[in-house]
Design goal:
Number of helices: 10
Low-confidence stretches: none
Number of strands: 12
Strand order of the largest sheet: 3-4-5-10
Strand content: 5-15%
Mean pLDDT: 94
Radius of gyration: 19 Å
Structural class: alpha/beta
Distance between the termini: 26 Å
Shape: globular
């Protein structure tokens, strides 16, 4: 496992693994933008899962150059490393944000790409460079495109833990726009999709959607969370949290039929069960309890 280097030597969510599992994982600290390190670390491996990225959409409005360096140049570094080290399968992590607001729904892999934020634009760039390495150099790339993944241990930069945290510990729930529709995918389903795509012999050169095929507005998700917790707090829209109008992605609902046909994957968790698992985890791990500020 490659973990982003930081002065605190933090290994992030890997810290939650059981010791017998963690002790069998070799952790290397580094940075995806270091091409030499990527070539060294991938040498001698058959399968590489490339999940490194800057992911926060609000922060991409503030620091777009950092997103280009990490998401585009970092992916190029990994592709070149896979090419030179003759990797047998390289999984590229994409995002449903590459599609932008749905022109038609549910969204399949042929839907046009729309760069409605610097984040989505850099992920489109990364996907296209990956595609070019498959077509130009026959690098065995598979682009996995999850819709909105959620689950225990997710940070407050994501909407579901933000809602839950405030439903548990705030007087009111402060959010951005309540109208956008999202297809929420539980993290265990996401992980299973990645592993199945990596293990399959017929995914090279393919792009695979991961999602549930069901969409809910942020307002509806907020109501579900409050119903599970047993609260009825006021929900307030905060202009600071609302994306620029043309940048907002209003509807993302997945068509995963190609993925199901190609590798036999389908989601197993419904949103109610998934939300319950996140709420239980956040109740048991109160690290965010005193942090109600907006996390960019």
């Amino acid at each position: 496992a490659l973990v982003h280097y930081n002065a605190l030597s933090s290994i992030g969510n890997l810290q939650y693994l059981r010791s017998e599992i963690l002790n069998n994982i070799k952790i290397e600290f580094g940075d995806i933008v270091d091409s030499f390190q990527m070539q060294r670390l991938t040498e001698g491996f058959d399968v590489v899962l490339h999940l490194a990225a800057l992911i926060g959409i609000p922060y991409s409005y503030i620091a777009p150059a950092a997103y280009v360096a990490t998401n585009i140049s970092g992916t190029l570094n990994m592709l070149e490393a896979a090419r030179k080290n003759d990797i047998s399968k390289l999984i590229i992590t994409s995002t449903s944000e590459t599609y932008g607001t749905a022109i038609y729904a549910p969204i399949d892999e042929k839907h046009p790409m729309q760069g409605q934020s610097p984040y989505s634009a850099t992920k489109i760039g990364a996907d296209k460079i990956a595609e070019s390495y498959f077509l130009s150099f026959n690098v065995p790339v598979c682009i996995v495109r999850p819709f909105n993944t959620y689950g225990p241990r997710q940070s407050l930069r994501a909407v579901i833990p933000t809602i839950i945290n405030q439903a548990l510990y705030s007087d009111v729930i402060t959010l951005g726009s309540l109208a956008p529709v999202r297809d929420m995918l539980f993290v265990k389903d996401t992980a299973k999709g990645f592993l199945m795509a990596a293990a399959s012999n017929n995914t090279s050169g393919e792009t695979l959607n991961l999602g549930t095929g069901k969409g809910y507005t942020i307002g509806e998700i907020t109501n579900m969370i409050q119903a599970i917790i047993g609260t009825n707090k006021d929900v307030v829209e905060d202009k600071q949290r609302i994306r620029p109008e043309k940048s907002e992605v209003f509807k993302l609902v997945c068509n995963y039929s190609k993925t199901e046909q190609l590798i036999g994957w389908s989601p197993k968790y419904n949103i109610h069960d998934g939300l319950e698992k996140v709420i239980i985890w956040m109740k048991q791990n109160s690290i965010y309890r005193n942090n109600q500020s907006y996390v960019v």
